[in-house]
Design brief:
alpha+beta; two-stranded antiparallel sheet; 5 helices; 11 strands; about 25% helix; about 50% strand
Length: about 280
């Protein structure tokens, strides 16, 4: 059995399953948010309509409607203003800083968990620094051949989040993405240990919504995103009981696969953030 077959399986396994149902779910959830620029869920308080306070006064067997005195009007106005919804856009004017924890159920390069710190320069622009990472063990076997691999991914990037309206936003920036694939492939005739390091300079692009409550609690979802590489490189090494010629040939192939991987656009779905603004 050619070990290259399993090496390619290890490389392909870095991609998470981005199924059509998941993409459809993103479109269904995100469409009303993108179209209206309003929160998907209710804000901390709901708007109340102003109502006139009336009372019935009986006079000679007939009822009539009269309004409260003018002295009660300021109180009614104050209660109505207090009950009005405070928009995320308005809260961003006073709460300048934000710290978030990040999670996504589906991402290439194992970019599953992370954290971010951001500052609002204006209600419509927020800049920040984000870290994402993750790892996963993969096991393959076919016949007598056994293979294992540890896949580790990481990304650090600066971002600008541009708000359109209350919550809908577009994210772009510049950053660094890397992946390490450390594997072992063996059977009765060979034992090969490939190791590949992939590095890329990437431009992150995301579409999402972000909401902030008066209490400082924040919730956001980047419905779909991508890391687009503008440059990339790869390093590879190969050890095992192969002849020097076979090892050299196989290492060249692994290196080429790694270089291709460095130039791949990686996708992210449903990147959820939960945090605090202050």
């Amino acid at each position: 059995m050619n070990p290259l077959f399993f090496i390619r399986r290890i490389l392909v396994s870095k991609i998470a399953c981005l199924t059509l149902p998941c993409l459809f779910l993103c479109v269904v959830i995100a469409t009303p948010c993108i179209g209206a620029g309003k929160p998907l869920i209710a804000q901390e308080t709901t708007s109340k309509k102003k109502s006139k306070n009336t009372k019935k006064v009986k006079d000679s067997g007939n009822s009539r409607v009269s309004t409260d005195s003018k002295d009660a009007a300021p109180q009614i106005e104050s209660e109505s203003n207090a009950a009005q919804t405070t928009k995320s856009e308005d809260i961003r004017k006073t709460k300048k800083f934000e710290v978030d924890a990040l999670f996504t159920p589906s991402s290439d390069f194992m970019l599953r968990y992370g954290a971010s710190f951001a500052k609002s320069l204006s209600p419509n622009l927020r800049v920040g620094l984000t870290y994402l990472g993750g790892s996963k063990n993969k096991d393959f076997s076919e016949g007598t051949v056994k293979s294992t691999a540890v896949l580790t991914g990481m990304a650090v990037y600066g971002e600008g989040r541009f708000f359109v309206g209350n919550s809908f936003n577009v994210v772009s920036g510049i950053g660094y993405r890397s992946a390490l694939i450390d594997g072992q492939i063996s059977d009765s005739t060979f034992d090969v240990r490939p190791k590949i390091t992939v590095q890329s300079i990437v431009v992150p692009l995301f579409l999402g919504n972000a909401w902030t409550w008066n209490s400082g609690f924040t919730l956001g979802v980047d419905w779909i995103g991508a890391f687009i590489p503008i440059s990339g490189s790869a390093k590879s090494s190969l050890t095992g009981n192969l002849t020097s010629r076979d090892a050299s040939t196989l290492n060249d192939i692994i290196l080429q696969e790694g270089q291709n991987l460095a130039k791949e656009t990686s996708l992210t779905l449903l990147m959820t953030s939960i945090g605090w603004a202050f």
